[in-house]
Amino acid sequence: MAPDTCCCSATALRRRLPVLAWVPDYSLQWLRLDFIAGLSVGLTVIPQALAYAEVAGLPPQGSCWTSSPALSLKASPPLPASQLALDRSRVGDAVLGLASMLLLLVLKCMREHMPPPHPEMPLAVKFSRGLVWTVTTARNALVVSSAALIAYAFEVTGSHPFVLTGKIAEGLPPVRIPPFSVTRDNKTISFSEMVQDMGAGLAVVPLMGLLESIAVAKSFASQNNYRIDANQELLAIGLTNVLGSLVSSYPVTGSFGRTAVNAQTGVCTPAGGLVTGALVLLSLNYLTSLFSYIPKSALAAVIITAVTPLFDVKIFRSLWRVQRLDLLPLCVTFLLSFWEIQYGILAGSLVSLLILLHSVARPKTQVSEGQIFVLQPASGLYFPAIDALREAITNRALEASPPRSAVLECTHISSVDYTVIVGLGELLEDFQKKGVALAFVGLQVPVLRTLLAADLKGFRYFTTLEEAEKFLQQEPGTEPNSIHEDAVPEQRSSLLKSPSGP
To answer: Are 261 and 73 in contact (CB under 8 A)?
Structure first.
């Protein structure tokens, strides 16, 4: 066994344990960026988790325990659009939220327009640049902390202009195996009854979680020019949920908002998650009273400004120029996500699947009209497409007056399934009943081997289109002089006995 194929090889270990790849090259510069990013994410994790718990009608401490792993995760239920509204808005929250967004945008512009460092810069200029860089990079933490101080000042004076996060239970969750039965109202609910109560959610929730995680990973991978391993993403989410069940965690998945905050603050490695996790654990045990003063409007400003750059407006114009059909799943996903993001992702995936199935069921074909009808499918041939192919050949060849022979050019067909073979056999019978022939050209070896094994009556194959046309134009009863099953039975036998590979 080759070293790189062994499941315990160094390459396999680095792929499954990415920490082995980045720790050897870790630097102090990365440590500074990871610390700032981890701190920024940590300051948003607990209040955001509490907000999700409030929307879902679940105990707040469970949502905090969900945030305790050193990962960028969120409790699943998003805020429906149905629960936003203007009649419930507050002047203080609106002013603080808009001011926070404005400050975040100003700091972001300062960061983007900073001059590059130069070795000959005076020490004072280097210090000033480093100070500005630190402030602009840690802008999320700065805005949240400032908003919390402002809210505390108003609370001391007895004024309450902002909606605050509020107090949460202190302490860490107990580690225990999740119960498989629950006693409620003097009635014991068994595990099977729990599963029945979950219903379709038992399949829909994990599916939506996996789709969202992959969407988050692909979005940031395209922005930062790196590739993701989908299997590793799914493995991490699955392992996280299994371990989370031991500490009464909610189901978790990748978070758009927190990942965006992580990226916007310049995170370099997953070590930023360690800082976030450490901050959350310390906060749950000692600092929950301080986090209770964070205004929800400031937190919303951080999330909005972090997520907004993820929306690529130019994609609409690009798709309109390149492939307009791809606008359909994009628009469906975008519009339905205002209702529920899960429904948007699911609907977009279904629309994409229908488009894919339509292209498989109705493959584009090249048609050459003449004394002999030639049809060349432009893509693979699978069971959804056989009916459309039979209809096209029948209408143009068999229903013509008089019926004429046809050639099926199969250069682009790399594999066929059993339904296609049955359909081709019935098509050959139809041609024989009309007294004309159907010939096959350009068959790849695996396809040819499959068709020969099916022993279709009247099946003839040729290497070139010229040979097929020459044979079909001969008078009936003339012996063939081209490469087909009647002329070279020894080739047919050798193909059937050859290995299954091409």
So the answer is: no
Of the pLDDT bands very low, low, confident and very high (cuts 50, 70, 90), residue 486 is very low
Give strand pairing partners of 367: 375
% of the chain surpassing 70 pLDDT: 84
CATH architecture under which domain 365-497 falls: 2-Layer Sandwich (3.30)
Determine the Cα–Cα distance for residues 494 and 407; give it in Å rounded to an integer: 24
Query: DSSP states of 119-145 as a string?
Result: TT--HHHHHHHHHHHHHHHTHHHHHHH
Among 80, 90, 57, CA closest to 163: 90
Look-up of token digits 């130019």: 314
Under DSSP, is residue 498 helix (H, G, I), strand (E, B) or coil? coil
Output the pLDDT for position 452. Answer: 92
Reading the block at residue 434, the tokens are 């009309």
Structure tokens at 50: 């509490």
Q: What does 323-367 look like in DSSP terms, one character per residue?
A: -GGGHHHHHHHHHHHTT-HHHHHHHHHHHHHHHHHHHHHS--EEE
Distance CA 441, CA 365 (A): 15
What Cα–Cα distance (Å) separates residue 99 from each residue in 2, 40, 151, 199?
60, 18, 14, 44
Q: How far is CA 281 from the centre of its chain?
A: 30
Q: What is the DSSP string of 85-102?
A: -STT--HHHHHHHHHHHH
Residue type, 155: E
Give me the residue spans of the domains in the chain: 25-177+205-308, 313-361, 365-497
Query: Residues with Cβ < 8 Å from 456, sequence gap 6 or more?
Result: 421, 424, 425, 428
Label residue 10 left, alpha or beta by phi (over 0 means left) and psi (-120 to 50 means alpha): alpha
Whether pTM > 0.90 for this model: the answer is: no
Which amino acid, residue 488?
Answer: V
Judge contact between 112 and 137, C-beta under 8 A: no
Which amino acid is present at 360? V
pLDDT at 6: 53
